[in-house]
Amino acid sequence: MAVKLQFILLMKVPIISYLVLYAGLTGCSALKTLSARDGSAGASSTTASKNNAPSFIDDISVTPGASKEPALVKGKKVPAFTAPAEPKRIKSVNLTPGETNPAVLQMKYASLLDVSTNKLTNIPLLQNIDHWWGTQYCLGGNTEDCIDCSGFTQTILRDVYAQNVPRTASDQYDSTEHINDNQLAEGDLVFFHTTGRGHSVTHVGVYVANNHFAHAATSEGVTIGNLDDPYWKVRYVGAGRVKKS
Predict the structure, then answer these.
(1) pTM beyond cutoff 0.90
(2) What's the structural domain count of the chain?
(3) 131, 149, 178, 199: which one is catalytic?
């Protein structure tokens, strides 16, 4: 009985050995396969990570939401882009047309004409100029929508001084008494040659004070001009005073 049991045990030892050896071999193969799989997964993960990484052009990051700190471009610091601020606009003071308050008008036009307020005593004149201030210029116009130079002077002389003058600048020049520049006074007319050849009168304004005149300019509409301005100085023809009827 003991001999038979020993034989059985001797027969089982090789079988067990073979089983252990097979398990060892298959285990290594499995480990290699697993290792290979783990390695390929890691490479794929690395590639994907690289593909998703921010791209660079000349060493400048284009990642959305990047910092506004200066970027490095070829070793030099370049400040982050900042949109330029809008220019500050200076609002004009007391230049609203249609003002009727005498004190306000005197201060406003004293500044425009460079005179003291006590030099501006004709409030109806200031009120009428201010009423028309900025009205657009148009040739032949005589309304609050648009007006030309002779239409403006004709209106001012009629409404402020109760004087009637012809409609055109050249006719107004012919109908006035021509005076020297040192005789100029408020309400006189000043005449200019602005277009074409010769010295014909093509523009007119109403003298106010201190070499300044009110007129309807082609570019600005009704405004204040200065006889000392180089543009008007070379185009000045002369002054005229409306003849008393």
Answers:
(1) no
(2) 1
(3) 149
